[in-house]
Amino acid sequence: MTLWSASEAEAATGGSSTIEWQASGVSIDTRTLRRGDLFVALKAARDGHDFVAQALEAGAAAALVERVPEGVGADAPLLIVDDVQTALEALGVASRARSRAKVVAVTGSVGKTSTKEMLRKVLGGQGRTHAAEASYNNHWGVPLTLARMPRDTEFAVIEIGMNHPGEIAPLSRMARPHVAVVTIVAPAHLAAFESLEGIAREKAAIVEGLEPNGVAIVNGDLDTSGILIDAARKKGAKVVTFGEKRSNHHRVSDLRIGDQATVVQGRAWRTPVLYKISVPGRHFAVNAMAVVAVAGALGLDRATALADLGRWTPGAGRGMREVIAMDAVETQMTFELIDDAYNANPASMAAALEVLAAAEVHHDLGRVSKGRRIAYLGDMKELGQSEAELHAALAGQTAMKAIDVVHCVGPLMKNLYEALPTEKRGRWSETSAQMSEAVRHDLDAGDVVLVKASLSMGLGRVVDVIRKMRQGAGLTDA
């Protein structure tokens, strides 16, 4: 199916094509480019113009460029524009304008991506659904997601993020959602904002792009909920609150976190609801109530939506759980990994610790007779002047009482290390590479291990070492 023809892309961007072409997709990366894609030569970490020849050799239908790149012939299929980023945004706007899809936009300090993926699952059960890949939620990720939207899309889910003030509103206006969701406002990116209230005002800007008669679904449990609600009402949106307080329109009334799932009872306005998600976690379960609210706002079949919620599982680096079999013969010799190494701030860290605390360990399996709950925690970034205190405060989390050992990575996590009771302290290291060296000595059959940090801390390296412990690959005495 043709996604973009040369003439359509020219009309959208104001550019000119060297020859006629038709593209079935849009790509910004030659490593994932598919034959028939329009390659967009963005200038990011590296100049995409340097990869145009490679993209065309790999089967790109055309390339969106500002000039004819070196090594590319004059007869190559190129769409030449004044500015590639601006042209990508124009493609996104044009794609949204021609679409009849019902669009849901999601933002929040914690849970944007997992909520987007829940929505992908639920909406996908009731119509042709398009959603952002990974965390494509910034100034190029949102227009790229829109530009990739198939013509016959019935539902679209757009994730919108921010690092600095003024970023969300333009992206929301580009997406023009019918429903806007704010999962939570929490200390994250405080280095760029004066206060939590400043973060809330930026998150509330997601309503700026709402279509007429749009719906704003916002967390009603927060100290800053009033800021979100006021912004939505000022925009003329219908406001639906969700959370655990009785005052919420959609509320969780009972939540039971098990070892492998969370079961929720609640009310969707006046209607009782019961659902399960196949992962433990209060934050997942509460955000799932926002998904229930979206289903209601879009007039979807609620029973089907609740059933599909139960089929959703988080992706790698976002709380995904897996069993690591340490011996191919002694199949009981296993431990469990909770891979949450993609992102971290105080709210998501507290939620992850609660999941670890609820995890079931197994005794009398390995060299250490007692199964343990073990955490590898790395620095939480962009927390501003209070960063040291916010790291140290994790020691006071109720969930910490059920956690046996905490290993800390990074200069900020040294504050937590020093605040922990001596008996819970594992090791502290400056880097993930240093921590990785002794991971095999830390773990044994029956344990449950959590790995969580901001992405820049590189704790994916620790996760990789843990995964390589499968089937006795170098097990040593603990």
UniProtKB/TrEMBL annotation:
<comment type="function">
    <text>Involved in cell wall formation. Catalyzes the final step in the synthesis of UDP-N-acetylmuramoyl-pentapeptide, the precursor of murein.</text>
</comment>
<feature type="domain" description="Mur ligase central">
    <location>
        <begin position="106"/>
        <end position="295"/>
    </location>
</feature>
<dbReference type="InterPro" id="IPR051046">
    <property type="entry name" value="MurCDEF_CellWall_CoF430Synth"/>
</dbReference>
<dbReference type="InterPro" id="IPR004101">
    <property type="entry name" value="Mur_ligase_C"/>
</dbReference>
<feature type="domain" description="Mur ligase C-terminal">
    <location>
        <begin position="328"/>
        <end position="454"/>
    </location>
</feature>
<dbReference type="GO" id="GO:0005737">
    <property type="term" value="C:cytoplasm"/>
</dbReference>
<dbReference type="GO" id="GO:0005524">
    <property type="term" value="F:ATP binding"/>
</dbReference>
<keyword id="KW-0133">Cell shape</keyword>
<keyword id="KW-0547">Nucleotide-binding</keyword>
<keyword id="KW-0131">Cell cycle</keyword>
<dbReference type="InterPro" id="IPR036615">
    <property type="entry name" value="Mur_ligase_C_dom_sf"/>
</dbReference>
<feature type="binding site">
    <location>
        <begin position="108"/>
        <end position="114"/>
    </location>
    <ligand>
        <name>ATP</name>
    </ligand>
</feature>
<dbReference type="InterPro" id="IPR000713">
    <property type="entry name" value="Mur_ligase_N"/>
</dbReference>
<keyword id="KW-0961">Cell wall biogenesis/degradation</keyword>
<keyword id="KW-0436">Ligase</keyword>
<dbReference type="GO" id="GO:0047480">
    <property type="term" value="F:UDP-N-acetylmuramoyl-tripeptide-D-alanyl-D-alanine ligase activity"/>
</dbReference>
<comment type="similarity">
    <text>Belongs to the MurCDEF family. MurF subfamily.</text>
</comment>
<dbReference type="InterPro" id="IPR013221">
    <property type="entry name" value="Mur_ligase_cen"/>
</dbReference>
<dbReference type="GO" id="GO:0008360">
    <property type="term" value="P:regulation of cell shape"/>
</dbReference>
<protein>
    <recommendedName>
        <fullName>UDP-N-acetylmuramoyl-tripeptide--D-alanyl-D-alanine ligase</fullName>
        <ecNumber>6.3.2.10</ecNumber>
    </recommendedName>
</protein>
<dbReference type="GO" id="GO:0008766">
    <property type="term" value="F:UDP-N-acetylmuramoylalanyl-D-glutamyl-2,6-diaminopimelate-D-alanyl-D-alanine ligase activity"/>
</dbReference>
<comment type="pathway">
    <text>Cell wall biogenesis; peptidoglycan biosynthesis.</text>
</comment>
<feature type="domain" description="Mur ligase N-terminal catalytic">
    <location>
        <begin position="24"/>
        <end position="91"/>
    </location>
</feature>
<dbReference type="Pfam" id="PF01225">
    <property type="entry name" value="Mur_ligase"/>
</dbReference>
<dbReference type="GO" id="GO:0071555">
    <property type="term" value="P:cell wall organization"/>
</dbReference>
<keyword id="KW-0573">Peptidoglycan synthesis</keyword>
<dbReference type="InterPro" id="IPR035911">
    <property type="entry name" value="MurE/MurF_N"/>
</dbReference>
<dbReference type="GO" id="GO:0009252">
    <property type="term" value="P:peptidoglycan biosynthetic process"/>
</dbReference>
<keyword id="KW-0132">Cell division</keyword>
<dbReference type="Pfam" id="PF08245">
    <property type="entry name" value="Mur_ligase_M"/>
</dbReference>
<dbReference type="Pfam" id="PF02875">
    <property type="entry name" value="Mur_ligase_C"/>
</dbReference>
<keyword id="KW-0067">ATP-binding</keyword>
<keyword id="KW-0963">Cytoplasm</keyword>
<dbReference type="GO" id="GO:0051301">
    <property type="term" value="P:cell division"/>
</dbReference>
<dbReference type="InterPro" id="IPR005863">
    <property type="entry name" value="UDP-N-AcMur_synth"/>
</dbReference>
<dbReference type="InterPro" id="IPR036565">
    <property type="entry name" value="Mur-like_cat_sf"/>
</dbReference>
